[in-house]
Amino acid sequence: MESLLIRRAPGVLLLVVAIMLQASTQICLGRQILSTGSGRPSDDEISTTQEVNYDKVSKSYWIHRDHPDSPASAASTYNTSSQSERIAAAARRSLARAEYFSRRVLDDSSSGNFDSPVEAVGGDYAMAVSVGTPPQQFLVNIDTGSDLVWVNCQPCIQCIVNASHNPFDPSQSTSYREASCTDAACTGFPNSDSSCVGTGPCDYIYGYGEGTTTSGIVAYEAFTFTALDGSSFAIGDVTFGCGQNETLNGFPGIDGLVGLAQGSFSLPSQLSSAPGFTDIFSYCLIPFDGTAANYSTFYFGVPETNISTYTPIYSNAVAPSLTFYYVYVTGISVGDVLLDIPADFFNISATDGSGGIIFDSGTTLNMLIGVAYDAVLQEFENQFSFPIVNNSYGGSTVCFDVSSATASTIYPNIVFHLQSVSGGEPVDFVLYPENVFLPPPETDVLCLTIMSINSPGPMIIGNTAQADHEMVFDRVNNQIGWASTTCT
Length: 488
Hints:
By secondary structure, the chain is an alpha+beta fold. The protein folds into two domains: about 5-35 and about 55-305, Acid Proteases (Cathepsin D, subunit A, domain 1); about 305-485, Acid Proteases (Cathepsin D, subunit A, domain 1), CATH 2.40.70. It is built from eight helices and 32 strands. It has a six-stranded mixed β-barrel. This is Peptidase A1 domain-containing protein. InterPro entries: Aspartic_peptidase_A1, Pepsin-like_plant, PEPTIDASE_A1, Peptidase_aspartic_dom_sf, Plant_Aspart_Prot_A1, TAXi_C, TAXi_N. Keywords: Aspartyl protease, Glycoprotein, Hydrolase, Protease, Signal. Belongs to the peptidase A1 family.
């Protein structure tokens, strides 16, 4: 891949847009409640061995779809939507996305075709990117559950409704180049969904479920990332989908999608062959109730980190097209109680590729199947003896009336015990109270970020769990690392 370096700022290269906001005085009260009792260690208590230095990393920013400045959430819609309505929408997206992943498992293992809810395709975050020479700017959805990079493209037969920008115009770019029939980009297209007619361009169709697709031309183009301080760099010859026909809904304000999964067509996979980059990326998500002054950060390349907690990334041998970030969970604890869940419950099925558990930044909540969900909920109720109440947003997660909480109230952590890279004692991924509870739609009610899904899975550790964790996806060494930190 050819690399074009336009301009780099000294030291860290600071790139494009992103904010995550769900602030209200009610949420602040909720955070104040959660600051008592057990919880995340303070900055002074966090070991210095987990501090992160990013002197040699390219840094970008993500904007959450519910942020008032996000094109994906029109100002009028955001201003008239309550916190309860936004949480309800996040819960629906989480369920739809989990269902989408489950149906992809069935499709890959040849168990039948499927029809997937389209809102499951996109994640909660978007990033600004410019395409072409001279650059044309777009806002793209970020998705760790898929691989293709694509944007709306002219001539547009059916593009995303209410996109942020006009479709990309290849005729106005001097660096645009269509893939030929013999190019690896055409012959090796994900799921082999590409074709050539005579000497014409390489056509593609990429499905996110039956009837939910992007299709158009496989092409190469320069992608430019611009910093808040105006510095920028461009990577040439990025393989992308010049999308001319999108049968997708639920993406207002979005111009395309950037896949971050493990396939060869994902953005990090392509950047890994560019000078100055390796096959590693990292992000630090602010909590669901972050403030407008804070940003969720995304890092390209190799961060200089002293993070020492890692777990291996696994592949789904039965369903190889599922390029999700699978990890092996050895057990789950609530507080100090290790739950009685069968040791093999979190394994990927060797028969049909179902099950397993993944890290996914695009799913809001944490999705568990049957036995695991029931065990977590039962033990949480044992330790958190507040009345269960109906939530005010119509979601299916469990909520508690905490009006009688005091300064001594203990809010249990939930801990995922994961296999260590050394094969020794498991390592712990801890959900602190702000990861365990949704920001309250009302001061005296707290709702769990854990929801139940049906088999075949996979189960999901979502972005509410990952918030205030520095997450490092080290694909060179096939491992995921993390450190508890403050992302705000």
